[in-house]
Amino acid sequence: MEWMAWTLPTALFFAAIAVMLMGMTVLELRRPCAERRGFLPIVTTRGDRLFIGLLVSAYLHLVVIGLTDWNLWVASLLSLAWLLVVLRWG
User: Fold this and answer.
1) Distances (CA, A) of 87 to 1, 20, 39
2) Residues 18, 81: contact at Cβ < 8 Å?
3) What distance in Å separates the CA atoms of residue 52 and residue 83, rounded to the nearest whole number?
4) Which residues are listed as membrane-spanning (predicted)?
5) How do residues 30-69 score in pLDDT, each as one tens digit?
6) Cα 85 from chain centre
7) Which DSSP state fits 44?
8) Closest residue by Cα to residue 29 from 21, 17, 39
9) Mean pLDDT across 12-30
C-alpha cells in the first residue's frame, strides 16, 4: 500500500463509504425503496442519491485539495453535509 498516502482523513473517508454501502444494502433488503423526485432534476432511488452524493463529495475533495489550502477535514464536513441533504431531499 505504498502507492497511496494513507492519512487519517483519507482512511476515514473510505471507511465511511464502505459503512454507507453496507448500510444501504441492509436498508434496501429490509425496506425496498421507490423512485421519487426531489430537488435533483431526475427521478432517483436511494442508491442513485447515494451515488450522486459520493460523486460530488469526491469532486469536492479534489477541489479543496487542488485549489485551496484548507484542511481536508473542511472538505469532509462539507461532503457529509451535502450527502445528508441529497439523501434526504434530493
Assistant:
1) 32, 12, 11
2) no
3) 8
4) 6-29, 50-67, 73-89
5) 998 888 898 989 999 888 898 999 899 889 989 999 999 9
6) 11
7) E
8) 21
9) 88
